[in-house]
Specification:
The protein is built from five helices and no strands. It is mainly alpha-helical.
Length: 192
């Protein structure tokens, strides 16, 4: 179990670094949005074009990066939306089983489904070096590749969550329980 927990910690750490980087990408996305708005309105006032399709697409691409690459980080940090009517009032042990069931039967198959159907989509984009149809737009094939990366990271994080829930259910000390994240100090009086 200790080897599996090491793998889970590595996955958590990798997704932690990516998630924090996406915070900076979100900041850049907001800055690009401000520049686009100012350019559009100031340009209209001055009778000039101060914005571009590349800037508009860069903002959308940044959003795509944040959405796809931060999903695994949010899962690691226990930030995804749940049906709290069912989940919140249950014991920690029941919540661990719900997490395990949901990850195995919903998250993992969904990630595999998306990855399976995205490979050809991304490969076709790379084969023609797909570019935006808009004048001055950006290439599309790099951002489409992020679909594969994002869902691969989400799949890995799902595996990490399975490892942590099984370890917690088995009573391994120092493993975060449901609603917690990472490794914590052993708690001998933990609710079972």
């Amino acid at each position: 179990m200790s080897a599996l927990l090491l793998i889970a910690r590595i996955i958590d750490g990798l997704n932690g670094h990516i998630g924090r980087a996406m915070g900076w990408v979100a900041l850049v996305m907001v800055a690009i949005g401000v520049i686009n708005v100012i350019g559009r309105y100031l340009g209209a006032t001055l009778g000039m074009q101060l914005s571009s399709n590349a800037m508009l697409e860069a903002q959308v691409y940044a959003y795509g990066l944040v959405f796809l690459l931060a999903a695994a980080y949010v899962l690691c940090r226990n930030g995804h939306v749940r049906v709290d009517v069912i989940y919140a009032t249950r014991s920690r042990r029941t919540r661990a089983w719900v997490d395990l069931f949901g990850t195995i039967f919903f998250l993992i198959p969904f990630c595999l489904f998306v990855l399976y159907f995205s490979v050809d989509y991304v490969a076709r984009s790379w084969s023609v070096l797909e570019s935006s149809p808009n004048p001055g737009g950006l290439p599309r094939y790099p951002i489409k590749s992020v679909i594969l990366l994002g869902f691969s990271m989400l799949l890995l994080q799902g595996i990490s969550e399975i490892i942590k829930r099984v370890a917690w259910l088995r009573g391994v000390p120092g493993v975060a329980g449901p609603g917690e994240q990472g490794v914590r100090q052993p708690d001998p009086g933990r609710e079972g």
